[in-house]
Task: structure prediction
Amino acid sequence: MPGNALEVSDLSTHIQLSRSVVQAVGNVDLSIATGETVGLVGESGSGKSIFSLSVLGLLPPGGKVVGGSIKVEGRELVALSERDLRRVRGNDVAMIFQDSQSSLNPTKSVGEQVAEPFRLHRGASKKEALDRALEVLELVGLPRPQERLGDFPHQLSGGLRQRVMIAIALTCEPRVLLADEPTTALDVTIQAQILSVLDELKERLGMATLLVTHDMGVVAGRTERINVMYAGRLVETAPTDELFREMRHPYTQALLGSIPKLDSDPTKALVTIPGLPPDLADPPFGCRFAARCPYATQQCREHEPPLTGEDPRHLFACWHPVDGPITKRPEIPGLAKAAAATPTDGSRTGGGGNGSVEHLLSVQDVIREYPVTAGALLQRKVASVKAVSGVTLHLDPGETFGLVGESGCGKTTLGKLIVGIEKPDGGKIALDGKEVFKLRGRELRRGRRDLQMMFQDPYASLDPRMRVSAILREPLIVQGVGTAKDQRQRIGKMLGEVGLPINALERYPHEFSGGQRQRIGLARALMLEPKVIVADEPVSALDVSIRSQVLNLMKRLQAEYQLASVVISHDLAVVKYLADRIGVMYLGKLVEIGSGEDIYRRSAHPYTDALIKTIPVPDPAAEKAKTEVGIRGELPSPINPPSGCRFRTRCPRAQALCAEEEPPLRSFGVNHRAACHFPLQTPAEDGATPVSSTVPVADRSGSSASDAPSGQAGPSVSDSPSDSPSAA
Amino acid sequence: MTDPTTRGVIEGIIPGDSPLGSPGAPEGGEVQVVSSGWRLALREFSENRLALISLLILVLFILFSFIGPLVYHSNQSVTNPLITDLAPGSGHPLGTDQNGFDELGRMMLGGQSALEIGFLAAAIATVIGTLYGALAGLVGGLLDGIMMRFVDILLSIPFLIAVLIIATKYSGTVITLSLVLGVFSWLVPARLVRGEVLTLRVRDFVLAARVMGAGQSRLVFRHLIPNALSVVIVNVTFQVADAILALAYLGFLGFGLQYPATSWGDMLGNAQNNVASGYWWLVYPVGACLVLVVLASNVIGDALRDSLDVRLRRR
Result:
């Protein structure tokens, strides 16, 4: 089509490994008109990154474009010599990468790096180039660019570095901008800022942009068309609205159904795509999605479907297309059973008749600070990083507590404190009333049995030298549980519970995929049948289609085993799906705590509100309706947090009082508390409630029913939190 | 709107029902069989031509030194002043030395000592160094500081001088020389292992072991050392090379093995005089052996490091 800024047809890229050829991209067509933003969506291994690298000829060693054509404004790029290609890179076509830390040269100043393309392509002098650099840095919204010209990348925060990367890409006013996961490594609030920068630039400069990402929420509001890739093939392409409303390919349907959303029903399971993406060194015959597709027939396994569609703007590659999103989600097995088993008469509060509530896990005023030392020989402590500053929360049996916040808020540290990897500098942590980590020796070891952890990084959390059977057996051996035969039986059973085949026992961790390793990690945490499990970012490192598998698994196990767990994540939707109660943290403090519905529909703290408004949702209409930019500014340093309310530097409602006095946690409803002087909701009548008062146990069946207004609660919960609950 | 058959979707969430081996594939997906880590490393290693040649050379020298004397008999104990310093000729492929001993036979004997001491010293150094380094790395804090300062102090003592002084006090036998060399060579492995352990101990799998109640000894022996093993193995080959060289220095300076035992270094020491006299067969063959063995060890060490690192990084 004439007039397209980027026109790719039938592109195929292969990567030659030592013994095999990976067919990374196969016969992909894609075009972007001038001024259009097109999304390219897919999980890792789908070929989307290789696709964008192919356009620029920046393939990894062994990579080669083996077919097709790439035209930028009519000019063919595929057969171009390296010299000519260099003239195109950075000049007509520019690229932004995911990780700004490793994509910027740490030894060159920001100004130099932004000026570099201008010097290379326009032959400008150093002064001219620096002037241009200043211009571009202003364009991307870098605060005080004149001062930043001499700064080095490590002196800037993640969001600022990403702006610098965008500036580098824009210096020579390219026609086409390829953005490869530009915001994946950033916090939600910074992500919103960067995406709005990209939006503005699109308006002003009219570039054609390719937005490559795995996050459907990010593409929902910002693209005109979306292309979905799976296993190197393009499986669907459609205008954004149509894709979300009336997708035709089963993969797209399942992908969109597997993403937990803030307004989805947590009692229903997420749609999952079983299995794993195929190995592209040996791709299957026929449709590459057939092995995981619920509608696959023999035809699908034998013949690969072409890209077709009645409407030339909406094409899909499927023999049995679907008609739109999944409407009915299945129930979670075991959830109904769990709800029935929940006692509604307060008998769960333990310590029967004395009126005081004993929680399973009680965290009170916990403080953790890391010293910052200076001086070469004698290290003196000059400051401290205030990771956790006085957090109080509690957990009851069978309950899931979600801890949400951005990076640097202290949630991971709090998780480590609960499990005993770190010792608190103040406050206490008690399990069943006993402070486990003050014990020593054998008692400490016995106490550790009840608090286990599931780690974030599937690649680092399993010992690469141990087979799975040894990994799963280790907790039992360390704690001296059961005979050898017993242990073998339990391992086998647990493996089945988490959905892995029995032959996995003999394998080493490197033979598993990320999702499978998380299952092993979960199985290991459950081997000792702990009372409390802390799951630290359980699905963040996983692909989108695998996340829902692990989330469903966790939900099912929670329901079946009545686990008490703490789920830590930066993703509010994940936490809302898994947790009964949610705590929002900011810079070491708990700013709001409440049920999922409370947080989502009636959030009282401005930070929570902003978080909810900034999270990209996979719904184009909702995304377009968002008008606010979100939270301005950068996260303050935890070494020197703001006085009074720590959020005041970025809060739209901040006033003088906020700097002087730290807001206490006030009650806004049953078990809903927030710490703010000028909250968004009216506090409950009896005003400020001291934090460590006896708070009634949340009735789980009450909170899992959607939209139950706070007044209408089960018999064990009273309206005014300062009353002690009536004992059973 | 067609709803999907819920079967396909639900199968994803009820794995517990299906006993392992039932028709539905386990929800987590099949596990692709990749060859075990060591086999992968072996394959990488075997693709390195130079490394294979070096391995062959090493093996040949071991055979030469230990099996050789069984095949090629020569007089190594009784001096024979009549046939001293003979050039290579009939009966003596490499001539004879100043005592009348057959040179080729001497080289085999020398090789035995050199290799024995080399490997033994390397073993001693590695064992001591690994334990010391692992402990320091795990314990951290003040004790780690003290332990490492101790290592620093020892490192600042010139290696050869220290070894020489100690060697003069003890009779030169294989065991004592191995001990002497080993005791002064454990410093480098200690540092290496400590570095690895420092990296490893903050890894999630070590934290997981702590969370489940594992004690220090379990952490060290079951988790830290096995994972630091690749570094240790690479270092062992370099240690062997260094020990053989150090032995050569000692021998050259006259503090090597006691006569009639000999090592390549001793032979070279005696041969200093022989260069001037033109008795090349007493100098160059021995020198060549030394160079080849040390070179081979170093090349193997390099290749091992490459193949093991790649495997560790491979996901």
Observations:
- Residues 134 and 194 of chain B are 5 Å apart (CA to CA).
- Chain B touches chain A through 52 residues (CB under 8 Å).
- Confidence is low (pLDDT under 50) at residues 1-24 of chain B.
- DSSP finds 13 helices and no strands in chain B.
